[in-house]
């Protein structure tokens, strides 16, 4: 399991976030709440890439989910130590593997569990998770632990292929959407084909869907260059697929 250089490549998007920064169970979170009536018992856990919840792209994505009637809680499982976009984004000399060594499960999983426990105490009974890059790993783990009821991953990292796909099929009852792309060393064509082999053709009763976006590179769903028509289509298409999947299965 590892990262690749594309995990820190990309473009910061423009816009003004409309959500709020809140502390839940001692953990910093970005919360995006629909402005219309919504199902209070449901929450989407937004599991960010290495840039964490402070990257404006992540906040704008969370806001967009809320505009579609889904409450979102984006969790700072990096404990305030996500990669600073202004210093690291597109810096090919940055030691990403050194950073990752200090952000293993023993550090990043406890904040996630604390927030989920607090949300349950507030009456949340159904969780979806949307995981990007680093967050794809935790989306799978939460599905393994039967904590979430619907899973979406976009260009996931840190997965063991085929083991994690096989474990998901055997242990999880959460419908799974994978947003994949043409150029992705972390979830390449072989991994995509293996996912289809394991879950496709109705074999996974809970529900499975994989989207594929040509001309896109790992990170496209969060940090894609929207001036590129194919990348813009991938970013928007993966978001639309995610909303539709949550609305159908959560």
Defining traits:
about 20% strand; globular; eight-stranded mixed β-sheet; single chain; about 250 residues; alpha/beta
Structure description:
This protein is α/β, with parallel strands linked by helices and 250 residues long. It has helices at 56-67, 85-88, 96-101, 105-121, 134-144, 163-171, 189-199, 220-223, 229-249; strands at residues 20-24, 27-32, 42-47, 72-75, 126-132, 150-154, 176-183, 208-217. The longest helix is centred in the C-terminal third of the chain and has 21 residues, at 229-249. Residues 1-13 have low confidence and may be disordered.
Short characterization:
This protein has about 250 residues and is an alpha/beta fold. It has 9 helices and 8 strands.
Please render the helix and strand layout as text.
Layout: E1 20-24, E2 27-32, E3 42-47, H1 56-67, E4 72-75, H2 85-88, H3 96-101, H4 105-121, E5 126-132, H5 134-144, E6 150-154, H6 163-171, E7 176-183, H7 189-199, E8 208-217, H8 220-223, H9 229-249
Parallel strand pairs: 3-4, 3-5, 5-6, 6-7, 7-8
Antiparallel strand pairs: 1-2, 2-4
**Which bin fits the share of residues in helices?**
25-40%
The largest sheet is:
8 strands, mixed
Output the structural class. Answer: alpha/beta
The rough form would be described as globular
Give the strand content.
Answer: 15-25%
Q: What is the count of helical runs?
A: 9
Number of strands: 8
Oligomer: single chain
The H-and-E topology, N to C, reads as EEEHEHHHEHEHEHEHH
Low-confidence region ranges: 1-13
- Overall pLDDT: 91
Strand arrangement across the biggest beta sheet? 1-2-4-3-5-6-7-8
CA-CA gap between termini: 29 Å
- Alpha carbon gyration radius: 17 Å
